[in-house]
User: Fold L-threonine 3-dehydrogenase from Flavobacterium luteum.
Amino acid sequence: MNPKILIIGACGQIGTELTQKLRSIYGIENVIASDIRKMNTDVVNSGPFEVVNALDYNQIQHLVEIHNITDVYLMAALLSATAEKNPAFAWDLNMNSLFHVLNLAKAKKIKRIFWPSSIAVFGPTTPKEHTPQYTIMEPTTVYGISKQSGERWCDYYHHVFGVDVRSIRYPGLISWSSPPGGGTTDYAVDIFHKALSKGTYECFLSSETRMPMMYMDDAIQAAIRIMQADADTIKIRSSYNLSAMSFTPAEIAMEITKHLPHFTITYAPDSRQQIADSWPGSIDDSEARNDWGWQHQFDLAKTTIAMLENLKSHPG
Ligand code: AKB
Assistant:
């Protein structure tokens, strides 16, 4: 039987593409998109849409009941750079929206939850290269602290209450159809826009800052794959490491010049540099590959081609 899906935060960077993909797989009527405002016409006009505040348990419960929801994808969150500017609200949104959905599952009102975690759960004391699934985790950002706490609660709700929650630790995400929203990895999206519009880009991180990244198609594929997997193959109920590629600003700039030979990059690191320096350079995701068959499709070369082609054919 098809799941009946509610996406909370459907107008954000991941939610926008996730909504379209889930609608193409499960049918438009089976995927209810929701967000705090009607912020994205593609999402709002392509199927059922509800305005919901992710901090309001009663509103979410009402939607779950009237639409007979089985699966919730909770995508609403404040990302790393924005969270540093508003720590109290970031903690409130990132934690309490998760509790609401976990409690709905505990009360058996929904069957499955997808909740994204992040490489931000790691910190400066974590091994930097090939960061293992199980390792030292001392995040130094508000966002990282909220994601690490969220992971512990997911694991707790699974083991104590039998809640079927599934999660992955996303690296930086690169997408052309929707802008990123206040993260430290956003430069890897901005750079393509500026390369095409201006031929030059001033990067807010230093040239050698290596970070794990992923093309949005892979990120969406991962979310759907982990949700489709048999419950007993999901051995980790906190969150799975997930990896596709790692590069520095200098390396992505070099890749862009293969297609736009006159492109230039300059560097003016700001407060986001400190956040980036606290995160891993590369991730070991063998558990996700072994347990539920995760495989990425896009490396840096393929991502660069996809970004440039899609932005050229969909300007503005
Ligand atoms: C951010 O930069 O905050 C996010 C993330 C790595 O979770 N893209």
Remarks:
- The pocket of 2-amino-3-ketobutyric acid is lined by residues 79-80, 118-120, 143, 170-173, 183-185 (CB under 6 Å).
- The chain is about 45% helix and 15% strand.
- The mean pLDDT is 97.
